[in-house]
């Protein structure tokens, strides 16, 4: 083998320096969009109104795509390297390790928001154990990641990578279930993940099949769901949460809501549970909804005062959502009392703003309750009652938090403005006094980057368009 020595004292020519710089920067700009020099010299636009009006709609449509970029950014070769020290059932490439890292970071913050929960090292440990020990779960995990990425980037077609992992998962889980042994926790986790993947893909029929199988598996295990709660509480919560998400998509009652006792009051701090007095209007709703409302108000008191254990937070939100969905299934006959109907839909939509911080994920699960809530908001027999004005004001804001896009602002913002005038809410502080009569979380819903900021922008756009229309009409009249 011949040794070669590098002499750095020699003068490098221009071509050599260019080759060195190219080699050093190799891979550094992968996935980035490099603007042209002409675009770099363009003046910075500090306001959305500085842009042409035809581009403002494009900006509204691109907001969710920007959210996806922040959630699943291009491959970073340095993130996820800690997984290279473990032996997985299949060989992981650097991009696959990075996907695990980013997915775990994003989902942990979504399921266990820091405003409510204390940091916990036990949150992802069971799932990591399944990934190392069970090849079936690992394939299912990557199929679920692919579905998340597809959802966040706004694609409708299933990727080949997701299809490959999904087919491998089905083959392996059928093999595990055909042995006749009592299904393991990892097998339950696989079937739950398959149902989640179906929910994310919008394949409700596929999710129903997996949940039917999951229900049968839990019935075959000694003690059923109660035993699973004692032995693996996190897995039980995942089962119940997936059941809730499917009920929101399918419009039916939950499968496991009646099998577990209400644990919400025990999960919430004693100093907050039941301490809030209901607003006068809420004393007119039925008693079951009043109990749920007390728990929601107790949950709203937690941020900024006390943080819950991750498992206690999950117990609370699961209990609240199960009781709301089982009170009147979304796909069934609606309550005869308009106030009960509006409050159930509004409270369920409010819970989606807590459960799903990512816009695309929230829209995926809240489409049916939002559709029913919009119908109730447009019902004159309910909307024209003067006594319901504060509640209607809250419902409009909750709807806006969940579904506001450019086209929604055309009807939503004018109604909020008109109702604010009737309630004499001239500032955001005045509006807050009205909103705080009902469930409201300041650190979540008052943040400047949240949806009420979009409502303000949409209001400005509508006012600008009205001014332009008035000017055009005046010019036409003067010309005639």
How would you describe this protein?
With 480 residues, the protein is mainly α. Among the domains are: 75-175 and 184-220, no CATH class; 358-480, no CATH class. 63% of the residues lie in helices and 0% in strands. The protein contains 22 helices and no strands. Helix 13 (287-300) packs antiparallel against helix 14 (310-327). Residues 40-72 and 448-478 have low confidence and may be disordered. It comes from Lineolata rhizophorae.
Tell me the layout of helices and strands.
Blueprint: H1 14-24, H2 37-40, H3 53-71, H4 94-111, H5 125-133, H6 135-152, H7 160-177, H8 185-201, H9 204-220, H10 224-231, H11 233-250, H12 264-267, H13 287-300, H14 310-327, H15 338-355, H16 359-377, H17 380-383, H18 389-403, H19 409-422, H20 428-435, H21 442-445, H22 451-479
Helix pairs in contact: 5-6, 6-7, 6-8, 7-8, 8-9, 8-11, 9-11, 10-11, 11-14, 11-16, 13-14, 14-15, 15-16, 15-18, 16-18, 18-19, 19-22
Supply database-style keywords.
480 residues; mainly alpha; 22 helices; 63% helix; Fungal-specific transcription factor domain-containing protein
């Amino acid at each position: 083998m011949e040794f070669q020595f590098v002499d750095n004292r020699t003068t490098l020519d221009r071509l050599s320096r260019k080759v060195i710089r190219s080699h050093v920067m190799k891979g550094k700009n992968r996935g980035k969009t490099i603007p042209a020099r002409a675009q770099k010299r363009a003046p910075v636009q500090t306001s959305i109104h500085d842009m042409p009006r035809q581009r403002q709609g494009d900006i509204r449509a691109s907001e969710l795509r920007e959210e996806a970029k922040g959630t699943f950014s291009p491959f970073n070769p340095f993130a996820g390297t800690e997984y290279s020290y473990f032996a997985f059932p299949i060989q992981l490439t650097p991009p696959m390790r990075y996907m695990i890292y980013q997915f775990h970071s994003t989902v942990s913050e979504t399921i266990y928001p820091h405003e409510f929960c204390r940091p916990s090292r036990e949150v992802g440990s069971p799932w990591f154990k399944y990934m190392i020990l069970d090849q079936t779960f690992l394939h299912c995990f990557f199929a679920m990641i692919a579905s998340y990425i597809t959802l966040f980037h706004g694609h409708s077609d299933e990727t080949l990578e997701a299809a490959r992992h999904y087919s491998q998962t089905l083959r392996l889980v059928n093999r595990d279930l055909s042995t006749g042994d009592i299904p393991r926790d990892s097998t339950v986790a696989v079937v739950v993940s398959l149902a989640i993947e179906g929910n994310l893909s919008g394949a409700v029929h596929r999710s129903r099949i997996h949940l039917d199988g999951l229900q049968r598996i839990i019935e075959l295990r000694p003690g059923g769901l109660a035993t699973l709660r004692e032995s693996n509480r996190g897995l039980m919560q995942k089962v119940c949460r997936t059941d809730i998400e499917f009920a929101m998509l399918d419009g039916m009652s939950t499968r496991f809501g009646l099998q577990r006792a209400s644990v919400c009051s025990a999960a919430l701090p004693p100093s907050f549970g039941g301490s809030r007095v209901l607003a006068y209007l809420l004393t007119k709703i039925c008693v079951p909804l009043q109990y749920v409302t007390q728990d929601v108000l107790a949950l709203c008191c937690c941020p900024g005062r006390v943080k819950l254990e991750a498992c206690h937070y999950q117990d609370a939100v699961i209990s609240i959502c199960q009781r709301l969905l089982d009170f009147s299934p979304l796909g069934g006959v609606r309550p005869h009392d308009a106030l009960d109907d509006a409050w159930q839909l509004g409270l369920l939509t409010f819970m989606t703003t807590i459960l799903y911080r990512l816009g695309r994920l929230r829209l995926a699960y809240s489409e049916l309750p939002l559709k029913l809530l919009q119908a109730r908001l447009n019902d004159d027999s309910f909307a024209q009652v003067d006594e319901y004005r504060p509640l209607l004001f809250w419902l409009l804001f909750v709807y806006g938090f969940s579904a506001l896009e450019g086209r929604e602002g055309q009807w939503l913002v004018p109604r909020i403005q008109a109702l604010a005038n009737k309630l004499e809410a001239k500032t955001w502080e005045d509006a807050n006094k009205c909103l705080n009569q009902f469930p409201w979380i300041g650190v979540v819903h008052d943040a400047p980057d949240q949806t009420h900021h979009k409502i303000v922008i949409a209001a400005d756009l509508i006012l600008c368009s009205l001014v332009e229309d008035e000017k055009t009409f005046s010019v036409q009249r003067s010309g005639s």
